[in-house]
Amino acid sequence: MNQEKILKLQALTPAQYLTGDEVIDLSHPSIKGLASSLRAEHGDDTSFARAAFEYARDVVRHSWDVQDPRVTLSASETLREGVGLCFAKAHLLTALLRTEGIPTGLCYQRLTDGRSSFYVHGLVAVHLQGSWHRQDPRGNKPGVDAQFSLTTEQLARTAATELGEHDYPQLLVSPHSDVARALQGATDALALCRGGLPSQLEPELAGQAEG
After folding, report:
1. Which residues contact 38 (CB under 8 A, 6 or more apart)?
2. Most buried residue, 54, 112, 133, 143, by most Cβ within 10 Å?
3. pLDDT, tens digit, for every residue of 147-184?
4. Which runs of consecutive H residues, i.e. helices, occur in the chain?
């Protein structure tokens, strides 16, 4: 992660961020197929990671941006439907990268909607060139320009501490349990965006998430 960033991720060893589960379902044929195709076209780790990031950012649409109420959670579901919230897009990117041997963890921010309400935002960190680098596949739009970078972070949003926003330093292997529960119990992604997302996260150890 670039040295200008104060945040220090609380992470396990990189090798522990290569496993899958029912959400990061990296063994699903569709995930393996897309990852293999992207790897064949972009051979080295950095080029492949950039291509996977751009796929999750650009090809999969953000639910709120396109006003699509479908709720997706797992990586394969997100790939199949082609739409998802930031969390689902992060799950897809994580599965694609782990499938090809790039350690990738899930991390979060607590952001404000510009008024008095807060919401949790999901992104990832990839381990390349010997260190962790946060990437945000949320999807770009006017005022949002997230880019893949191993030097200077370019996320969708930078946490504004003066507004009470902050970065969660824990780098998780599995989705945070609060996030998983919110998505599992939802039927309308737009309703989630209007106030159904977690406003903060309960502490969980790096690498651990309750089922």
Report:
1. 48, 51, 52, 55, 96, 100
2. 133
3. 999 999 999 999 998 898 999 999 999 999 999 999 99
4. 29-41, 45-54, 63-66, 75-81, 86-99, 177-184, 189-191
Cα separation, 141 vs 205, whole angstroms? 33
- Cβ-based neighbour number of residue 120 at 10 Å: 20
Residues 6+ apart with CB under 8 A from 87: 73, 122, 175, 179, 183
Which candidate, 9, 40, 206, places its Cα nearest to that of 127?
Answer: 9
For the record, the structure tokens of 121 come out as 């935002």
The DSSP bridge pattern shows strands 104-112 and 83-84 to be unpaired
Indicate the class that CATH gives domain 14-196: alpha beta
Beta strands in the chain (DSSP E): 61-62, 83-84, 104-112, 118-128, 131-135, 166-172
Query: For residues 92 and 60, is the Cβ–Cβ distance under 8 A?
Result: yes
Task: Enumerate the domain spans of the chain.
Answer: 14-196
